[in-house]
Amino acid sequence: MREIAVSGVRPTGKQHLGNYLGAVVNFVRMQEEYDGYFFIADLHSLTTHPRAADLQANVRQTLIEYLACGLDPDKCTLFVQSHVPQISELYLIFNMFAYDGELHKVPTFKDKVRTQPDNVNAGLLTYPVLMAVDILIHHAMKVPVGKDQMQHIEMTRNFGNRFNHTYGVEYFKEPIGFNYGDAPLSVPSLDGEGKMSKSKGENTVIYLMDEPDAIRKKIMKAPSDSGPKEPGQPKTEAVQNLFDLMKLVSKPDVIAHYDQAYHDCAIRYGDMKKQIAEDMTVFLTPIRERIREISADQAYLTRVMEEGGEKARASAQKTVTEVREIIGLKSR
Ligand code: TRP
Known about the structure:
The chain is mainly alpha-helical. It is built from 13 helices and 5 strands.
């Protein structure tokens, strides 16, 4: 039997290159080796009260783009979180194993209190409980997530252990956060600082759907510097970001050429950016075409969601039935 992996992504609409390399690359690889449950976390996104139509469109778009990037419903279970009501039932039960004090201390919660003080709702506070349930309900051992989510995985282990301890069982196992060691996880922002993120503005991210024209315009605007004055001068962050972007999409000999040009103080950043834009276009064109194809095939999308939901519900129901038994809730 293959080990179980679970991960979720919030439905944020059009995915950008950062999402693609952060999550999709891991999922696409894992579906070959694991029994993967990958889902769109629409319940989690309710904390910010999205408009109904937006939520629906974003779930659909996220699903389309994950499929276009190579997630294969024949190799993994791909589903929408809210299509599995068992998750909500187990979430209620797990709220009894999460303490107010520890929830208030979670850095992601404290961040939200700072950034959106007018909407600090209980769902936000118990976000880690829902996430733990996403994971435990399928008895996952591996959870592909970024660094910022590792604390949530630790809480998942704690909640599961507390349940076990309270009822004197060894029912839930301990999942761990997981990433392929060699996976390129963070994609630099086009504004020259830090990683790609929509919160820094539309012009600092490259969407999987972007047309070649948009790709070129955004990359040409990325900052560089006035060029190295002497060989061996370390790269500024903006220039390093350009090289990191190049590494994602260009061939090794092209990268070597620009490295040498930098070293020789002969680099022309305009040429380099043109090259990145060209290679980025080659990289994204097949994905953009797949997105277009899949978007036009509503029957396929419906089938993927129905079949994925059915598989996820079966796995989740088994857990809920066993948990009800353990805690003494009569089954209907
Ligand atoms: N919290 C995750 C994020 O913001 C999304 C998520 C929800 C998730 N449930 C999960 C990730 C379960 C892994 C496992 O990225």
